[in-house]
TrEMBL record:
Full protein name: DUF3899 domain-containing protein
DUF3899 domain location: 35-117
Domain of life: Bacteria
Keywords: Membrane, Transmembrane, Transmembrane helix
Source organism phylogeny: Bacteria, Bacillati, Bacillota, Bacilli, Bacillales
Transmembrane segments: 7-29, 41-67, 98-121
This protein's record includes keyword Nuclease: no
Length: 123
């Protein structure tokens, strides 16, 4: 878990992962294909981070609460130990540090991607 706390070390690990994927999967070793591999890694982070941001914002809380209530009212076998009123909602299950982790890495890798795109199209 300590390795995840050092965000700059994780950026280096992500760039190393991008380089490894580049050498394993690229049909030609050029900047264009390296940018493609960096795109895959950075937008994975952005996608997960934005999904966590939507969940943490409470978008799915009402839907989840309604489904739990409906299931609790219509269930024939009631589990009295499992109360739908006290279960945590999805917005309460997203940790703020994980959200910051994914958003930071997604944005940082995307800025690197944009810098490489500027170099690619300038040359």
């Amino acid at each position: 878990m300590n390795i995840l706390l050092n965000k700059w070390l994780m950026i280096v690990i992500n760039l190393a992962l991008t380089t490894i994927l580049f050498f394993l999967l690229a049909p030609a070793y050029d900047l264009f294909h390296y940018i493609n591999q960096l795109f895959y890694i950075s937008y994975f982070y952005l996608f997960v981070g934005l999904l966590m941001l939507v969940i943490r914002g409470g978008f799915f809380d009402a839907i989840t609460y309604s489904f739990r209530r409906f299931h609790g009212m219509t269930s024939k076998r009631r589990d009295y130990m499992d109360d739908w009123k006290t279960k945590p909602l999805p917005s309460q299950s997203i940790n703020r540090s994980w959200l910051n982790f994914f958003i930071f890495h997604g944005v940082t890798l995307t800025l690197g991607l944009l810098g490489l795109l500027a170099i690619y199209y300038h040359a």
